[in-house]
Design goal:
Structural class: mainly alpha
Distance between the termini: 52 Å
Number of strands: 0
Largest sheet: none
Low-confidence stretches: 8-13
Strand content: under 5%
Mean pLDDT: 84
Number of domains: 1
Shape: elongated
Length: 103
């Protein structure tokens, strides 16, 4: 009488192309999110706090506001809104590439 393999062995061998594709999709999704969050962190924390004294040497054209002050008050918010639109465009492309787009 043969002993069937354990359920964990069966499930590890049962992974097919669908599971691999799903893992690739989520890996790409998380990579995109981390990249966009890193950009936002750099703009908000880096330019608005750490680099503000250096950026204050320059002024925002047409306003006279120091650039570091502008990044701290408005720039991080504007960059966040732009990153939302970039995320939407890139996710739509990624959804089409992986075949999971909404109709």
């Amino acid at each position: 009488m043969s002993n069937p393999s354990s359920p964990t062995e069966q499930s590890s061998h049962a992974q097919g192309p669908t599971e691999d594709r799903s893992a690739d999709y989520w890996r790409a999704n998380v990579r995109l999110l981390l990249c966009l969050l890193a950009i936002w962190f750099f703009v908000s924390f880096g330019c608005g706090i750490l680099l503000a004294p250096t950026l204050d040497q320059y002024t925002l054209p047409g306003t006279g506001f120091p650039l570091g002050f502008w990044f701290a008050q408005q720039g991080s918010i504007y960059s966040f809104v732009v990153l939302i639109f970039v995320y939407v465009v890139l996710m739509n492309r990624m959804d089409r590439r992986f075949g999971v787009q909404e109709d």
